[in-house]
Write a structure and sequence with these properties.
heterodimer, A: 119 residues, mainly beta, globular, B: mainly beta, 7-stranded mixed β-sheet, 10 strands
């Protein structure tokens, strides 16, 4: 079945780095733009970043620009998020999400991985 | 910068009642770019509506979306126990950038 599985979350000190992964299965990963969306504890959803299906373009929310880097390996059906210079306000559940251009919506979401930035 | 404002923040209703949720955009947007999601506690968001009014696969017909320009709404015709959740609207805009509303919680009265 169609599935996204995130991993790599954990507790990290402010200023340190963390790398998240999202393994995709059940669909042609290389045909879809992929996003990261986060949700701080008890808060709403916040879009973080997107990478085009072929990696040719990527965009970031202002809150993470210059600190986070999205990448993908289509040969391994995997999406990544490199997070540097982490701050307390980056504490959140990070979801990867498949974006369907025919729907113009996020149709598949992973279960999320929790990142806690704390000293 | 586009802002989506959802109202009310919380809607207290009983099973069987009708729920109407509002999503107002700070600028006019194409209805093609407006979607609605449902999130239950401890669960991942689920796509309900795309293109402002089209139901996603497997979504019951008690869910309907409407609107255009800056005003959009999600209606649940008769609330079932499993419908009590938080609902988010979302739009795609220039930059490009994706934006979510702050959410409306539908709770049992």
């Amino acid at each position: 079945q169609v599935q996204l599985v995130e991993s790599g979350g954990g507790v990290v000190q402010p200023g340190r780095s963390l790398r998240l992964s999202c393994a995709a299965s059940g669909f042609t990963f290389s045909s879809y733009a992929m996003h990261w969306v986060r949700q701080a504890p008890g808060k709403g959803l916040e879009w973080v970043t997107v990478m085009a299906y072929d990696g040719s373009s990527k965009y970031y929310a202002d809150s993470v620009k210059g600190r986070f880097t999205i990448s993908r390996d289509n040969s391994k059906n995997t999406l990544f998020l490199q997070m540097n210079s982490l701050r307390a306000e980056d504490t959140a559940v990070y979801y990867c999400a498949k974006y369907d251009l025919s729907l113009l919506a996020f149709d598949i979401w992973g279960q999320g991985t929790l990142v806690t930035v704390s000293s | 910068e586009m802002v989506l404002s959802q109202s009310p923040g919380t809607l207290s209703l009983s099973p069987g009642e009708r729920a109407t949720l509002s999503c107002r955009a700070s600028q006019s947007l194409s209805s093609s770019y407006l979607a609605w999601y449902q999130q239950k506690p401890g669960q991942t968001p689920r796509l309900l509506i795309y293109g402002a009014s089209s139901r996603a696969t497997g979504i019951p017909d008690r869910f309907s979306g409407s609107g255009s320009g800056t005003d959009f709404s999600l209606t649940i015709s008769r609330l079932e126990p499993e419908d009590f959740a938080i609902y988010y609207c979302q739009q795609y805009g220039r930059s490009p950038k994706w934006t979510f509303g702050q959410g409306t919680k539908v709770e049992i009265k």
